[in-house]
User: What shape does this take?
Amino acid sequence: MSPASDLLAHTLAQAEFHPRLPQQRRLYEAAKAAIHQQQLGAGNKLPSSRDLARDLGIARNTVIAAFEQLAAEGYVTSALGSGTYVADLQAHTASMRGVGSAQQSNKTAAAASAKGGAGAPLSRRGEELTAFAAGPRYEIQPFAPGDADFSSFPFKLWQRLQNRIWREARADLLDYGQSGGYLPLRQAITEYLRISRSVKVSVEQVMITAGTQQSLDLCAQLLADVGDTAWVEDPCYWGARRVFQARDLKLHPITVDSDGMALDDEDLATSPRLIYVTPSHQYPTGAVMSLARRRELLDVAVRKNAWILEDDYDSEFRYTGRPLAALQGLDTDDRVLYMGTFSKVLYPGIKVGYLVVPPALIAPFKSALYDLQRPGQLMVQAALADFIALGHFTTHIRKIRQTYGARRELLRRTLVAQLGPQLSQSVTISSEESGLHLVVELPDRVDDVALEKLAAESGIQVKALSTYYLAPPVRRGLLVGYAYVTPEKVVYYGRLLAAVIQSGVR
Ligand SMILES: Cc1ncc(COP(=O)(O)O)c(C=O)c1O
Assistant: This one.
């Protein structure tokens, strides 16, 4: 066997050249890897196709096809009668680099002159957006706020529903969703919202989106122009903030107190186009917007000709009593766009949410959803429709509500016990019985960002409350998620967290 045959046989035996790939593809990949790693150097002669086929125990045609592919991509050169040689990739790359760098430097110069010399590859907006590191990239870590317990998701059942949909092999479910989403899912959501959330809704008003983030973006694009003002709660959900910034809206922060968004004269002197609120459970403080404030906000929206974007992201998680009615249900002037998500109840990667628009916005929103997003995933939507229609959704909510409620209580008790009576006076643990996180409020003098970092050193991913604020006065505290943390871990990490808090407050 020639050294080159030996090398290729050895390379082919490596796990990354998957045995289930066609032989031709495996040989091509193996040769390419050997060339890249310079095990087969420029000018090396490859064995003849006949010899290599014999050495590797494969068909000659397979070798010829692999050689042809390598030649077509410039890895080897073949001269009739004299054999196949490894090409000089360095020379090729250098000449490409010459072309590329000339083009690049032209582009850079153009960008630099357009932007006053910085020469950065991103737009100013791009720089601003990427400078802000939002949530942790991998969220399932002890106490990261906002995540559900995926482990309690009924995987087997979900698999059966999905399998059934795939067995039906309906071609129409492989298409884009042209009409606002899979109709039976929109019907199921309509029913659910009417009964559980007191939303005034017909099926036509419901659009399936890829979650709240997309719903918000669609609203920002269709309802506001560059430079328009968006009122946002302060502190505010970072996801909403990012979307509005990305659409070049002016953010006007509105203070949140225990009754939700609290408008003052200064706020009322501005003219918002959009008003973003989380009235059922303010994110992140947990405040529930009072009825008086809800009415006031609806009045203001009419007077200002503004749209209210109601983000009802976790109202399923109310551990005592019924879920609260949505703000949209009180709206008599069609000013509210209501949005919900399956990220919290099922799992975030499902990327399915819904947007309920007033009747006058149905046609433009459907059309924009299709033109801007090209929505699809109808197979998932169909499985989800069955999941809801067959009652599994409500069963699942009931089950996780109990689990999360118990974990919440356990976390509260652990923290209170560990902090002791003295510290418990300067530290307030949120008492409202809902949501997926609780807020441990700290005295103003405490640096909650430093505590967040300190907690991270113990493997705890809490978030500093102050980072959610846009304007002073800023409250200090920590957001502590508990939903997916097992009881043993709630106690273990709860004690560690209490120690971190003690060190910061003392
Ligand atoms: C306030 C709020 N709204 C919405 C969402 C969920 O959005 P999505 O459906 O894009 O996952 C979250 C998730 O963390 C949230 O905290």
In short: The pocket of pyridoxal-5'-phosphate is lined by residues 146, 211-213, 237, 239, 278, 283, 311, 313, 341, 343, 348, 353 (CB under 6 Å).
